[in-house]
Amino acid sequence: MTTIEHSTLEVAVLANGQALSVPVYRIRGESDGPSVYIQANMHGAEVQGNAVIYQLLEQFKSLHCLGNITLVPLANPIGSNQKSGEFTLGRFDPITGENWNRGYHFNKSLPIEFAADNKQLTNEEIKQKFRQAIIDDLEKNKLNNPYGAKTSQLLCAQLQRMAFDADIVLDLHTGPISSRHLYCPEYAKDRATLFDIPHVLFIPSDFDGAMDEATFCPWWQLQQAYQAQGRDIDVMVEAFTLELGSQEWLSLAAASEDSDSVLSYLQARGVIKGEVFNPRQMTRYGCMLEHYRALYAPQSGLVEYLAPFGEILEEGQPLVQMLHMERYVDDDCVTQVNAPQRCIPVLHFASASVNRGTELYKVMTNFFTL
Ligand SMILES: [Zn+2]
User: 38: CA distance to ligand 1 center in Å?
Assistant: First the structure.
């Protein structure tokens, strides 16, 4: 029986002095398997990952965990409590307007300097010393910066500090109204088929502030810096963002499927013992991030979303039909927006009322089968 330790970590303080904390669940590995960090709900309305963490913990109780595992549900207590009417907001810091998942830290000069200064180290020494270097850099620049840091940066830095101890990081999100999809770094593309996720977006080593990028960019760019010296090392850490359905939606049954999916990946990576979990047989489609396209409303109006997720839509087939209330008696009071090219719809906007320029759908183009 696995022992699960439960603690809390203070990540923010309100103006009235009230502390906000996140729950932290830890499992000590039985041997030296890869260590794992999993968090959920960084965006306030994206609650399904919390249910997946619940199901994972239920499963871990009776599994042999070989590496240390840290799980943090409800990772953003500020965003989770930000409600307006029936709905949870919590995608953007209400004070700065910044996306909560863009506040992570990355120092792009660090991998280059480290590789230049540490040519003689063994791979194992590189892993240990570079991990310490990125932790020190995070503490110096964010957690202990004499100028302070923004609320979102401090929240992110405390989560990132836990993630930096791990070899594998999974950040659990959802789309607005969405199918399951996975953001997978290009270097780890053979891992994509270990998850039961039908849509995979392959991302480059660019840093845009998100947790997955903040985790793999230092290690990926370190690998590239050594490669430039003529030395081949592996990218020693991997991170994925899992988009597990729609916001404001919770399903323990779906979470159980996603827990099995995560476990088949963790088992293949040597984190848990046994051969219990296997990826499902399913058609998985992938595309490069540059071919994952947003389609914006050409006119304002009310929207009926027509295109189902996960099915190939040919050029010219309808994505939505729109109702324009200002011209009810005219011929063009109902219009269609059609697919500009062959694509697979992955998610759509959550509201039926849109302005011109609202992101209606996101679709995979130039896709391929994995
Ligand atoms: Zn999100």
Answer: 14
